[in-house]
Write a structure and sequence with these properties.
By secondary structure, the protein is mainly α. It has helices spanning 27-41, 71-76.
């Protein structure tokens, strides 16, 4: 390995982003991995839209609760 300040043909190049640690992949396999990583990190895909609120949360489906005597019992009885 050459020291970082050595004058060679790669002096102006940046450090490699991907490094092969183990194995001997074919060029096709290595290309497939690189293509998947680029597609995953490209940022071209938009964030998924937030889900709309549940219908259970809409106030139009619930009748307002009344206050006063018998309100607790009336809350469980159908109208």
């Amino acid at each position: 390995m050459t020291p970082p300040d050595a004058d060679n043909s790669q002096a102006g190049r940046a450090k490699p982003v991907l490094r092969l640690v183990r194995g001997n992949p074919s060029p096709e396999e290595l290309g497939a991995v690189v293509a998947l990583l680029v597609a995953r990190c490209a940022g071209g895909a938009a964030e998924p839209a937030p889900e709309p609120p549940s219908w259970w949360a809409t106030p139009q489906l619930r009748s307002p609760l009344t206050h006063g005597p018998g309100a607790w019992r009336a809350s469980g009885l159908p109208r």
